């Protein structure tokens, strides 16, 4: 009984840790500011964009990916940076992302 309770608590803690790690916002710095407020959906999350910054406060597991960046770039234009503050996309990934940017 004690072993089952311990295993259950470990599983709950692991889930909370994973959820907390995914909850870090994904932020994009656009190369060109938008013309007002926008709420594009990219990588399975809603971004709130104002000026040259877009942020997804409730990202999915796919939001911080290259695919998420490409989704946003198609809608908002090229980016200078993209990702959660603790693990942004690399320069090469940002370049690849910008190949999808609207012109």
Give an overview of the whole structure.
This protein has 103 residues and is of the alpha+beta class. It has helices spanning 2-22, 66-76, 91-98, and strands spanning 26-30, 41-42, 45-46, 48-50, 53-56, 79-83. A four-stranded antiparallel sheet has the order 4-5-1-6. A two-stranded antiparallel ribbon has the order 2-3. Helix 2 (66-76) packs across helix 3. The longest helix is centred in the N-terminal third of the chain and has 21 residues, at 2-22.
List keywords for this structure.
about 20% strand, single chain, four-stranded antiparallel sheet, two-stranded antiparallel sheet, about 100 residues, disordered N terminus, 6 strands, alpha+beta, 3 helices
Short description:
The protein is α+β, with helices and mostly antiparallel strands and 103 residues long. It is built from three helices and six strands.
């Amino acid at each position: 009984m004690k072993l089952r309770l311990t295993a259950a608590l470990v599983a709950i803690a692991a889930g909370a840790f994973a959820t907390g790690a995914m909850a870090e916002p994904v932020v994009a710095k656009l190369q060109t500011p938008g013309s007002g407020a926008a709420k594009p959906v990219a990588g399975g999350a809603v971004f709130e964009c104002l000026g040259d910054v877009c942020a997804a406060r409730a990202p999915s597991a796919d939001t911080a990916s290259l695919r998420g960046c490409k989704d946003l770039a198609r809608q908002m234009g090229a980016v200078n940076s993209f990702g959660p503050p603790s693990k942004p996309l690399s320069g090469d990934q940002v370049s690849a992302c910008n190949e999808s940017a609207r012109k």
